[in-house]
Amino acid sequence: MADLSVEVAGIRFRNPVLTAAGPPSQNGSALLAAARAGAGGLVAKTISVEPAKVPRPTMAALDRGMTDFSIYYALGGRIVRRTRTKMFTPRGLLNIELWSDLPYQRWLDVEYKVAKSSGLPLIASVGYTADDLRFLGPKVQEAGVDGIEFSLHYVGIDYKPLLEIAKALRESVDVPIFAKLSPHILGLTEFAKELERIGVDGIVAVNSLGPTLMIDIETGRPLLGGKMGEGWLSGPAIKPLALRVVAEVAKNTSLPVIGVGGVTSGADAIEFFMAGASAVEICTGAILEGPGIYGRVAREIGEWLDEHGYDSVEDVRGMALKYLPEDYQYEVRNPGVDPDLCTACGLCEEVCRYDAIKVVEVDGRKTASVNQYACYGCGLCTTVCPTRAVRFVD
Is residue 83 included in any domain, yes or no? Predict the structure, then answer.
């Protein structure tokens, strides 16, 4: 059985699935529930000098409604369709939650102590200005946290002024500190290297994306209570962006990276590990599913590692980095089809804009077939195939 424990900047976690600063880590009781549900470590909601005044409504699901799913299972060495079902599957979440609306003193006196009673490592989250961090950092450290994450959200896209924030916290505390990056920051590689020189112990990537807007077409009103109806996008919709940031930091620094943004399954977490992350945080998934998601994702990570013959997360960390090309790739590659895995569901044929893949009958059995001459090599069919029957083969 794979060992799920990981060490990040000297902090040992029982598994690599952590809470993230946000509604599911809103107080000590919520963090304690996450610990009991299987989280490997705890990250508390961000605090600042003044408690947040949070607009209402605060959250809205992206693509509200039900999605039709096919569920497959193995039978006699083949993958076959079992049933179809409908599930509520938003691709993301818009929120205008801001930082904690509890006074920082409440966290120092009560909430951190409740969270620490779990026995798990506890990372505080603080923001936002250099003066805020000079003031709060020592107080939070004295409260007994194991590390401090500092949020660089809401503070601009030019990284140079942000270095003063990192310096202020580094000079104020001795515990490991982690910079949580906004996806909007320009000059990411240079910024990450500067943070490393300052003495930041790790990077958390990424925060939510925005501002964004959603409108109820029945009323014409925005769904959130922010100024101009604005909110910030999180969840599965931003996972590709988060993965890219994780990979860029991992390729260009020696800092450990914690990936956050769209993790809802063990497979999502494995992607982050392969991009260079040492652990992951979950926020949106925990909002939609509840604290049970932490233990479920941890179990799925363990199952995937066992099935693929790996002993630990470290065995796959950074695996994908060597495959990330330094330049554009122009060679046309055509996918192949494994008839033993193909269920003839027709999804590949539906999405092919080049009329290059069809479900045909071969030896009395239906299977997808690729016309190598018509195929453009776009790769879309390989990503919609539910059984990986259509895929590129090296």
Answer: no
Could you give the percent of the chain with pLDDT greater than 90? 84
Asked, for residue 63, whether it belongs to a domain, the answer is: no
Mean pLDDT in residue range 148-162 = 84
One DSSP character per residue, 267-298 reads HHHHHHHHTTEEEEEESHHHHHH-THHHHHHH
pLDDT per residue as tens digits for the range 163-211:
999 999 999 999 999 999 998 888 999 999 999 999 999 999 999 999 9
pLDDT value for 108 = 98
In terms of residue numbers, what domain contains 205? 6-57+92-323
* Same domain as 363, residue 258: no
Are residues 39 and 162 part of one domain? yes
Residue 389 main-chain phi, psi, to 5 deg: -70, -35
- Residue 62's pLDDT band, with cuts at 50, 70 and 90, is confident
Domain presence at residue 53: yes
Which residues on neighbouring strands pair with residue 280, listed in sequence order?
Answer: 17, 259
Last residue of a domain, one of 301, 323, 345: 323
What interhelical angle do 266-274 and 292-307 show, nearest 10? 60
* CA–CA gap between residue 336 and residue 390 (Å, rounded): 6
| Measured CA distances, 267 to 166, 264, 300, 301 (Å) | 32, 8, 7, 7
Domain with residue 230: its CATH number is 3.20.20.70
Cα torsion through 375, 236, 188, 40, rounded to 10: -130
Asked, for residue 74, whether it belongs to a domain, the answer is no
Q: How many domains does the chain have?
A: 2
Predicted pLDDT at 54: 92
Structure-token pair, residue 175: 């515990």
Based on the fold, state whether residues 167 and 296 are members of the same structural domain. Answer: yes
Report CA-CA distances (Å) from 53 to 126, 247, 287, 288: 16, 35, 20, 23
The pLDDT > 70 percentage for the chain reads 93
